[in-house]
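Input record (one chain):
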Amino acid sequence: MKSLIITLFIIANTIFITQGGRDVHQLIWGTESSILDQFNPEQTRVRSEKNLDVLVEEYRKADEATRTLEKGKGLDEVRDIKQEHKDLYQNKAALKSEISEREKKGREVRDLWIYTGFGAALIVLGSLLYRSRAVWPGLSLVIAGFTVFEYWSSPSFFSGAGAEFHALLVSKTVLTFIALVALYGVWRLFRISPDIQPQH
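The corresponding structure, as predicted from the sequence alone:
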């Protein structure tokens, strides 16, 4: 049992330390803009807009404008309108893409905190069970709790939606270090230390 706990501690410690390093790297260098952004100024403008309400209002106006242009028109006429008002349609598409991405990232930030709260509850409950001599159920819950932490605090590989992605990345970085502190707290609570014999 002692060997198992020590092995699991070493594995979890390695995961959270390397994960924390990747999160910090992403925070510093992972959100740099691309040199290619200069060739798509409309998309860049939309991405740099901080306020979601402003984007939604711009999208509403673009949507109303395209509906007005297309009203009562046939497929061929609509195709001609799209060519004639290409900038309007590109702006609408860019706004729609950015709004969808921001909503997705917003939901991910919400789920991140909900599920890691669940993971923290499992760790606390498991630690209490372990300390009250229900060793295997307690250890199982602690492992499950840290697994939830590891999954939800793992680094994001995709960016997009600048402000929301940054908030998500900050949350994941904070949770990685919280998990690391919790790991050492649980280790101390379990009072496990490797049997190291002093050399004579």
